[in-house]
Amino acid sequence: MHDTMIIASLLVFLNVTLLAILVPGGPIENRDFSKLKGGVFWGFNLFLILLGITSFIVCYLLLISHPNAILITKIIAVLYFIVYIIDLAGIFPKSPTKMSAPLMLFEVINASMAVFLFLFVTAIENVGL
């Protein structure tokens, strides 16, 4: 079972890395979010930062097979999925700049990785891989 926990930890690390490369102003995210109000902008950024930090902590918890690691990982996977889906659906965050094709592709891949992470840790929990 320890090998599967290492793989789960690597999948969480991959998810947080895929999120990090989508930082506004980075190589892929080129939309303008200056229209977002301060509280909304900083609140969303704080949420994403906390999601990233929590992901790194969960990587460690999975490696040591902490009893709550699977549950926390499932929650994180759902949060990643929600972040990408609400952006792909155009719900939030709204930008006057259209989403580029590479960004859209990355978000679809990232949402898929979040689903895969959820299914993988659910299999660990249910089957005891």
UniProtKB/TrEMBL annotation:
Name this polypeptide is given: DUF8051 domain-containing protein
Transmembrane segments: 6-28, 40-63, 69-92, 104-124
Domain of life: Bacteria
InterPro entries: DUF8051
Keywords, comma-separated and alphabetical: Membrane, Transmembrane, Transmembrane helix
Domain DUF8051 intervals: 6-122
Lineage: Bacteria, Bacillati, Bacillota, Bacilli, Bacillales
One Pfam family from the record: DUF8051
Source species: Paenibacillus contaminans
